[in-house]
Amino acid sequence: MQARRQSNKMGHVLLLLLFSASALNLINGRDVEEDFSWPLRKVPQLVKERTLSLGTPKFEASAKLELSGVCGIECQRKLPVPHLSDLKELLSYETVFENGTRTLTEVNVLGLELDPVRNATTHVLSRRKRQVYGTDSRFSISDTRFLTNFPFNTAVKISTGCSGILISPKHVLTAAHCVHDGKDYIKGSKKLRVGLLRLKSKGSGKKRRGARRSKREVSELEEHQLDAKQLEQGPNSRSGRKRKTSALNERKSERKPSFQWTRVKSTQIPKGWLKDVTGDVAVDYDYAVLELKRPHKKKYMELGISPNSKMVPGNMIHFSGYDADRSGQLVYRFCSISEESSDLFYQYCDAESGSTGSGIYLRLKEPDRKKWKRKVIAIYSGHQWVDINGEEQDYNVAVRITPLKYAQICLWIHGDSETCKLG
Fold first, then answer.
1. Is 215 helix (H, G, I), strand (E, B) or coil?
2. Which of 116, 203, 256, 368 has a CA positioned 20 to 30 A from the CA of residue 311?
């Protein structure tokens, strides 16, 4: 017990150091304040051309939190630079609504300058498995000074067993495969919910507004946490009422923070994620935006265009999510970028299933100001298995927010490309 307390203290001290201005001002012996700032870039425009009605999805796909057979680092090098007509199709998008109706919106891309070396990657470093071994570099955020404040309070839990990040008062960014397997929407996405962390106040006798919904919220919480546990244990596991009740009693005795579950009004995914377009799982397009039925009152994280890794302080990225092996806990980690392509970051942060869909962010200086700002610049797609020269190898991958993806996600949030000209 004493060792655990000592470990928690050390974790809190390290977190304080990591998020203090003085610690971040010097990384690798360089002055971050002078060298690193958010680049102000002109963003291509995505303009809606027409919207078509589609059939109702079956919602029969099985959730897979680890992808296999995807295009890896070597495969990325061989991909041709897409033509404008290809991008128009890849960036068109599906929207599925709460009542099951579905539409396809076709887009046009304006003001785009194609990069002739788009899919080049950096020098290949030695690989290693992403499973946690030896010293676990993750931090469970238990101190409310961190848990309830920015940037940690932007992390959310998705009812299908993934994580996400708040990017507006009504929108959540997550991985596409958390809701769709490339062919169909997964079973749990028909009644999709987003869980926002909340702390129960002690000794408060006041009834809060909406208290009548508490029983329903508790019921939904039980259902979603049970689904997440079944995903972790595999399709053949059996979870009866006794196991569920026991788990709830355990959580109650430990007084863990609870989730306030909010319905999802609509879900949007790029057409580039669909297998009938790409022929395979396209990790480059593994992102989705969920629109909440009710706005939240938490601080959210703004979008940022992913800079080159050379412009990242210390080459370090950060993200928080709800790893399945630490039930009910928000887990934070940071690590260096090992390799990159124009659409992906490759890294080896300690992470378990459940953290998939987390928002990866940076803290850089705003242009012409002394103020520092955190922005989400990638989506953690998770642990991937790829076929390399006939052998299966693994890595962790994050989908970078490129100018085109910034334009698309911004369009999903605001509904108007006129507000998305600079990023």
1. helix
2. 116
SS3 for 9? helix
Rounded Cα–Cα distance for residues 86 and 84 (Å) = 5
Instruction: Identify which of 174, 261, 257 has the alpha carbon closest to the alpha carbon of residue 216.
Output: 261
User: In which element (H, E) is residue 242 found?
Assistant: helix 241-254
Task: Find the angle CA(320)-CA(343)-CA(275) to the nearest 5 degrees.
Answer: 95
> What is the residue type of 346?
Y
Higher-scoring residue by pLDDT: 88, 328: 88
Task: Evaluate whether 295 touches 217 at the Cβ level (below 8 Å).
Answer: no
Contact (Cβ atoms closer than 8 angstroms) between residue 79 and residue 284: no
What is each CA distance from 370 to 25, 31, 34, 306, 366, in whole angstroms?
Answer: 12, 13, 10, 21, 7
Give the C-alpha separation, 109 to 411, whole Å: 12
Segment 366-409, tens digit of pLDDT: 877 778 899 999 999 988 776 666 667 777 899 999 999 999 99
The DSSP output letter for 314 is G
Q: What is the pLDDT of residues 348-363, one digit of tens each?
A: 888 888 999 999 999 9
CB distance 65 to 353 below 8 Å: yes
CA angle 337-360-124, nearest 5°?
A: 20
Q: Is 202 exposed, middle or buried (0-12, 13-18, 19+ CB in 10 A)?
A: exposed
Strands 67-68 and 372-388, by their bridges, are parallel
CA distance 418 to 383: 36
Q: What is d(CA 318, CA 363) in angstroms, rounded to the nearest whole number?
A: 9
Q: Where are the alpha helices (DSSP H) in 255-306?
A: 275-278
Question: Which whole-number Å values give the CA distances from 108 to 48, 105, 263, 381, in the listed order?
Answer: 7, 10, 31, 27
Cα 231 to chain center, whole Å? Answer: 18
The ranges assigned to domains in the chain are 43-198+257-419
Torsion of Cα atoms, 264 then 265 then 266 then 267, to 10°: -10
Residue 410, SS3 per DSSP: helix
Two structure tokens written together for 194 = 């987003």
Say what the pTM is: 0.79
Two structure tokens written together for 78? 């061989």
Identify the bridge partners of residue 396 per DSSP, sorted by sequence position.
347, 383
- Classified by CATH at the fold level, domain 43-198+257-419 comes out as Thrombin, subunit H (2.40.10)
